[in-house]
Write a structure and sequence with these properties.
Blueprint (H helix, E strand, L loop, with lengths): L2 H19 L2 H7 L5 H22 L5 H17 L8 H6 L1 H18 L2
Helix pairs in contact: 1-3, 1-6, 3-4, 4-6
Length: 114
């Protein structure tokens, strides 16, 4: 994989984390017209996690950062067992989504601050 591809993946990875970590009302506004919780989870788990694996292999993220990705991914898997967590109300008010956003923000902070 060449450097331009990795840069593109990294930039997209950051965008996914920014969307995932922003306040819920901003998420709802930005992703209007979609099932917001599903869209966030799918982007994170299907795209973001794949990007994280590539970035880890190429040493653009470290093991600790990758571990945070795994924690969030596991949280989303666990949340998928409860259909009540997948509407906009849950996105705004549930502890589960709040915890996911906080972990996403923590990961984002480690990437931006170096």
């Amino acid at each position: 994989m060449d450097i331009n591809e990795i840069i593109h993946i990294y930039d997209r990875f950051i965008e996914i984390l920014e969307d995932f970590s922003m306040p819920p009302k901003e998420q709802i506004k930005k992703l209007q017209g979609t099932v917001v919780a599903d869209e966030l989870a799918t982007d994170f788990s299907d795209i973001g996690f794949t990007y994280a694996e590539i970035l880890k292999e190429n040493q653009w993220i470290n093991q600790e950062q990758f571990n945070i990705m795994e924690v969030i991914n596991n949280m989303l898997d666990e949340m998928s067992k409860d259909s009540n967590l997948w509407d906009e109300n849950a996105l705004i008010y549930s502890k589960e989504w709040k915890d996911c956003r906080q972990n996403g923000k923590r990961l984002l902070d480690t990437l931006i601050s170096g």
